[in-house]
UniProtKB/TrEMBL annotation:
It catalyses: 2 a quinone + NADH + H(+) = 2 a 1,4-benzosemiquinone + NAD(+); N,N-dimethyl-1,4-phenylenediamine + anthranilate + 2 NAD(+) = 2-(4-dimethylaminophenyl)diazenylbenzoate + 2 NADH + 2 H(+). It comes from Nocardia fluminea. FMN binds at residues 10, 96-99. This is FMN dependent NADH:quinone oxidoreductase. Binds 1 FMN per subunit. Quinone reductase that provides resistance to thiol-specific stress caused by electrophilic quinones. Also exhibits azoreductase activity. Catalyzes the reductive cleavage of the azo bond in aromatic azo compounds to the corresponding amines. The keyword Flavoprotein applies. Its EC number is 1.6.5.-, 1.7.1.17. HAMAP family: Azoreductase_type1. InterPro entries: Flavodoxin_fold, Flavoprotein-like_sf, FMN-dep_NADH:Q_OxRdtase_AzoR1, NADH:quinone_OxRdtase_FMN_depd. GO terms for molecular function: electron transfer activity; FMN binding; oxidoreductase activity, acting on NAD(P)H as acceptor; oxidoreductase activity, acting on NAD(P)H, quinone or similar compound as acceptor. PANTHER family: FMN-DEPENDENT NADH-AZOREDUCTASE 1, FMN-DEPENDENT NADH:QUINONE OXIDOREDUCTASE. Residues 4-205 form the Flavodoxin-like fold domain. The keyword Flavoprotein applies.
Length: 217
């Protein structure tokens, strides 16, 4: 039995293509694996707090020396880090905003990249940073206004969503990451519908592939 952690970063509701596709992904997954559980965190509607000076001081203080106020400053971070460790699979629904991730998702990443919790730091070591999160797979559904931002596409050089998330997740130890793209939201019409259909087909492939892997294993 596995646990999925679904993260929605769009402030849109029914008009969000990434929310819709993430919902379809989870529905297909759950249909083939009814014993799995799903945890959902809606970053778009319940934005994480930003990192503050108090948060930084608390994070870099050893747990035994933290004051009650420091523990309070880290309460949200502790919660989302615990969710991350409990999950086997991450499903991220991410609209591209001005070539990068929404501020809500960036704030979430800042809350889960924690020294001593999700990565270790030894300034004397040859490799000072050690990932502490392992054995997880991530699926990222990206929605864009234009099309061609995927790696190898004509607008790939302007895509700072995929490189950033691969770097941030990889830094923690999550290297198995698949991206699904849907574009043409600003154009609408047939172009948008064709893009959504390609994304749905990719979602179907990935959920079928995962099922096959489970059966083979």
């Amino acid at each position: 039995m596995a646990q999925l952690l679904r993260l929605d970063a769009s402030p849109r509701r029914s008009r969000s293509h990434t929310r819709t596709l993430a919902g379809e992904f989870v529905a297909r997954w759950s249909a083939s694996r009814p014993d799995d559980t799903v945890i959902r965190r809606d970053l778009g509607h319940e934005p994480p707090p930003h990192v503050t000076e108090e948060w930084i001081a608390a994070a870099f203080t050893t747990p035994g020396e933290r004051t009650p106020r420091m523990r309070e400053a880290l309460a949200y971070s502790d919660q989302v880090v615990d969710e991350l460790f409990a999950a086997d699979v991450l499903v991220l629904a991410v609209p591209m905003y001005n070539f990068g991730v929404p501020a809500m998702l960036k704030a979430y990443i800042d809350q889960i990249v924690r020294v001593g919790r999700t990565f270790a730091f030894d300034p004397e070591a040859a490799a000072p940073y050690t990932p502490l999160v392992s054995g997880k797979r991530a699926f990222v559904i990206v929605g864009t206004g234009d099309a061609g931002y995927e790696m190898g596409g004509p607008l790939a050089s302007m895509n700072h969503v995929e490189p950033y998330l691969r770097t941030a997740l990889g830094f923690l130890g999550i290297d198995d990451v698949e991206f699904v793209y849907t574009g043409n939201d600003e154009f609408g019409g047939e172009r948008l519908q064709r893009s959504l259909e390609r994304a749905r087909n990719r979602v179907a492939e990935l959920t079928t592939e995962r099922k096959a892997v489970d059966v083979a294993g």
